[in-house]
Amino acid sequence: MEFKNAYDKIYSAWMGKIIGIRLGAPVEAWTYDEIKNTYGYINNYIVDYGIFAADDDSNGPLFFKEVLRNKKIEEITVQDIANTMLNYIPYEHGFFWWGGKGISTEHTAYLNLIEGIQPPQSGSSKLNGQIMAEQIGGQIFVDWCGYCSLGDPHIAKKLAHMASSITHDQDGIVGGEYVAVMIALAFTYHDAYTIVTKALEYIDTNSMYAEVIQDIIHFYDANPNDEMKCFDYVLSKYSYDHFPGMCHIIPNIAIMILALLYGRNDFNKTMTLLCTLGYDTDCNCGNVGSIIGAIVGIENIDEKWITPIQDILLASSNNGYLNQTTVSDSAYEFTQLAFESHGLEIPNEYKRDLSTTTYHFDLPYATKGFIAHSSRYCESNVKQDQNKLKIILNNCFNDYSLDVDKITYFLPDDIYDARYDPLFSPQVFPNETITVSLSNPLNCNLSACLRITYTDGTIEDSTSIPFTDHIELQHKIMKTKKTVHKIGLHFDFHERIMRKYILVNSFEIDHHMKYEIDFKNQSPCDFGLTFGETSCVNPFLFSLHRGNLNYTNSGFELISTDEAFIQMGEPHINKRVIEMTLECDCEEAHIIISSTGYSDFLSLKLSHEKPISLCKKNAYNFQEIYITNLIYEKMNSALKVECTCDLIMVHINNQTVQIPMSLNQSTLGMFGIYIKGNGKVSLIDCKLEGQFSI
After folding, report:
1. Nearby residues of 347 by Cβ (< 8 Å), 6 or more positions away
2. DSSP annotation string for 31-85
3. What pLDDT sits at residue 423?
4. Are residues 113 and 162 in the same domain?
5. Which end of the chain has fewer beta carbons closer than 10 Å to its terminal beta carbon, N or C?
6. Residues 483 and 388 in one domain
């Protein structure tokens, strides 16, 4: 399969998934009668979410795909997928619905994994009971298995079987296999009926799950023009009243098959019918969105579904940097990992450089989260057009201005609600250089500059330059203790501009961060109430996996009652300097040099009156790689760590040691702190510097 074909197919499927989640979220768990009496037939988004917060249905595929990084697809094991889950899922907050052990299937299986119960026993009906094993989570997170199969249903089934077995069993696993296989088949077949029936060949036809699908197909064959009669049939045999648990998988697949068959390959009809009929609308519309999106392609999805998304995709893993992405960028990552894990070469024109962040406007609607702040004195919008970002200008008054920017660190006021505990950390830092190429093909009379907006509301502009043809703007963000909130462009108009546009040809950030954290002016981010009516308050800057973080006048305290873990920074940096003053009041603390997540990091271990050592955490195990001759003592310690690809220099209290790096140890990742056992680490000041070095 050609890379571009796979990229386009995965993008349209993933877009369908994101549309389905957003469409179904407001009426999740509503009955058909409640929806009909309140909204009537749903034919558009019923809530204007603005920037939609995280959702479990997209969290799963977005992060579980990471198991494919640096591995061949035939090498993947169920334990690898479980380790990936542990690496990115925060401890009992965000990501999933944490309904309690014995109530929420994912919560139960996650705690099983934490306690050392290995998959597939972690999700088995023998351990957790059949009711828990057959809830909906077995199929709602497996879209990545279909995408990354590149159309091979056998690979899709294998990956989904492993992924679903970590948390589910029996029909819960069959459901994961079936949904992933349908997505894979949609790479080849363009008819929902064909896909629904052919996918049955890949699952246990003696399972109840398969019997329900066959039953709905038979009903459709006999009544092909009466979806409401079919819905009445589904209610009579497969409603939630007939199946135990919070959200059983059988009612969901029954209504999904109904929508796929009666939707007749029409995206609008399939999705609006499915949402209007009720039940688990966000999960069902999400899964079906993947399938029908892959069938029809992006060109056959009405833009009324796509443009409100603004190409923004938020998540709630324990990595606040990665929790801020776009639909188009994540589609690229699915495709990239699929090709690499299949051993396929990515064409040069699609390879991406880790040393910079480049916003690629290479897919329809791929606006990368840039928003034009239109007003009555400047009507503006942004569109993707021929691999460029088009900034539309109309009725822009003389002596007025326009900002077009992108949020690089989301704050509570930026998003709609506290859905699934939003958790973010900055993506752009002081001392980094932004370079933008602009074209002015219609000779608009205006000036342009780069604009940096900080979290305190202050603004930093580059020199404003008038241009009538082409210009390249470049600006190095000043060294400051402030935190970057948005980056973008500012335009000043020197005449009234009508029916014209500006083109952004390229937009790049060269990562060479130098950032001193200002603890004195920090406070937690209060995102408001969750659906459970509890407060969602998360740290400023840092992504908290587990533990408590308290801000003080002199810094912050990370507090642990069992273990604690926080991280922040730029994940694509492998050459860094960390300077801090800290005090460890705990038996064992780790200063994390590079981290991909909770179960995969490289760290310096600090234990009172013991030698400082270099450690590697891999899943459940800590490996002590190198023991230095420096003894750590509990006191205010001035620590400096200089890290390159082949050497780590540790300076503490006027002592220095060099630690050689082996070839199999990566320094690529985030900075953080980990505490093992009870206690706390007090961080008084902290300076970070880093860049990517080949």
Report:
1. 3
2. -HHHHHHHTSS--S-SS--SS----HHHHHHHHHGGGGTTS-GGG--HHHHHHHH
3. 94
4. yes
5. C
6. yes
If one counts the domains in the chain, the total is 3
Q: Is the pLDDT of residue 199 over 60?
A: yes
If DSSP states are collapsed to H, E and C, what string results for 509-538? EECEEEEECCHHHCCCEEEEECCCCCEEEE
Residue 452 included in any domain: yes
Residue 363 lies in a domain: no
672 within a domain of the structure (yes/no): yes
Instruction: Say what angle helices 3-24 and 281-296 make with each other, to 10 degrees.
Output: 150
How high is the mean pLDDT of the chain?
A: 95
Domain boundary among 291, 314, 337: 314
**Same domain flag for 493 and 581:** no
416-453: b (≥16 Cβ within 10 Å) or e: bbbbbbbbbbbbbbbbbebbbbbebeeebbbbbbbbbb
pLDDT digits 0-9 by tens, 545-574: 999 998 887 788 999 999 999 999 988 888
Note whether 300 and 408 are same-domain residues: no
Per-residue pLDDT, 123: 98
What range does the domain containing 32 cover? 3-43+52-314
Amino acid letter, 336: Q
154-175: pLDDT as tens digits: 999 999 999 999 999 999 999 9
State the DSSP H helix or E strand holding residue 285, giving kind and residue range, or none if neither.
helix 281-296
Same structural domain for residues 563 and 475? no
Q: Which CATH number belongs to the domain containing residue 380 in this structure? A: 2.60.120.260
**Helices (H) and strands (E) in the chain — how many of each?**
19, 29
In degrees rounded to 5, what are phi and psi of residue 182? -60, -40
Burial class of residue 130, CB neighbours in 10 A (0-12, 13-18, 19+): middle
Phi and psi, residue 33, nearest 5°: -65, -40
Asked if the model's pLDDT at residue 663 lies above 70, the reply is no
Q: How far apart are CA 117 and CA 140, in angstroms?
A: 23
pTM check: above 0.85: yes
Rg (CA), the chain: 26
Burial 668-689 (b: 16+ CB within 10 A, else e): bbbbbbbbbeebbbbbbebebb
Q: Do strands 459-461 and 446-454 pair parallel, antiparallel, or not at all (unpaired)? A: antiparallel
Kindly give, in sequence order, each residue whose CB lies less than 8 Å from that of residue 563, ignoring residues fewer than 6 positions away: 546, 547, 674, 675, 676, 677
Q: Which of 21, 30, 29, 98 is nearest to 52 (CA)?
A: 21
Residue 56 annotated as lining a ligand binding site: yes
Are 507 and 558 part of one and the same domain? no
Domain identity same for 507 and 546: no
Q: Is 280 annotated as a binding residue?
A: yes
pLDDT tens-digit map of 96-112: 999 999 999 999 999 99
Question: DSSP 3-state assignment of 112?
Answer: helix
Smallest Cα–Cα separation from 19: which of 220, 347, 264, 275?
275
**Cis before 120 (ω within 30):** yes
Distances 106 to 284, 419, 423, 498, 601 between C-alpha atoms, Å: 18, 17, 20, 54, 24
461 is in an annotated binding site: no
**Is residue 421 situated within a structural domain?**
yes
Among 566, 539, 552, 540, smallest CA distance to 482 is for: 540
- Tokens (6 digits) for 497: 């501009």
CA pair distance 384, 368, nearest whole angstrom: 9
Asked whether residue 158 falls in the same domain as residue 261, the answer is: yes
CATH, residue 183: 1.10.4080.10
Of 475, 407, 477, nearest to 435 by C-alpha is: 475
CATH number at residue 645: 2.60.120.560
Between the CA of residue 213 and those of 198, 257, 385, 402, what are the distances in Å? 11, 7, 42, 54
Residue 171, annotated as binding a ligand? no
Smallest CA-to-CA distance from 407 within 62, 22, 53 is with 53
Compute the distance between CA of residue 245 and CA of residue 236 in angstroms, rounded to an integer: 18
